[in-house]
Specification:
This protein has a domain of 94 residues: Alpha-Beta Plaits, CATH 3.30.70. The chain has 4 helices and 4 strands; from the N terminus they run αβαββααβ. The protein is globular. A hairpin with a 6-residue loop joins strand 2 and strand 3.
Length: 139
């Protein structure tokens, strides 16, 4: 009886030992990490809701500057917040330094005119994140 019991215990141990790896979760993927620089764009001291030719010119320059920064490959994401609050939008940069990102963003016509002000934050995330826009109607 004792021998059967010992054999049963060993059989259970062996079966459990074999089964545990099958139930173990896949190991967490490993990501190489890097620092990105995020600029939050807030209403600046010269912000105004008035629709004037000057505001339209500044906005046109702001949009052209976004395209220019994106073309360098260093501006990864840009866009507005749509809740009409003081926080108007954001930029996410992949640059070698905060100073490089600031130098690019501070050339923006809306920032130079005081319509927007920048608040900077380093962001540590997976390296090589990207956003690829797709044309409407594509999958």
């Amino acid at each position: 009886m004792k021998r059967t019991r010992t054999a049963s215990i060993w059989l259970i141990v062996i079966l459990l030992g074999a089964a545990v790896p099958a139930f173990a979760a896949d190991p967490a993927p490993e990501f190489e990490m890097t620092t990105y620089y995020v600029a939050f764009l807030y209403r600046g001291p010269a912000w105004s809701p008035e629709d004037t030719p000057e505001r339209a010119r500044i906005q046109e320059g702001h949009m052209a500057n976004i395209q220019k920064m994106a073309a360098t490959g260093k501006l990864l994401v840009a866009g507005p917040f749509t809740d009409d609050g003081d926080l108007r939008g954001l930029f996410v940069f992949r640059t070698s330094s905060l100073e490089e990102a600031k130098a690019m963003a501070e050339q923006d016509p809306a920032v130079k005119a005081g319509r927007l002000r920048l608040e900077w934050h380093p962001w540590f995330a997976a390296k090589n994140i990207a956003v690829t826009a797709k044309a409407a109607g594509t999958k």
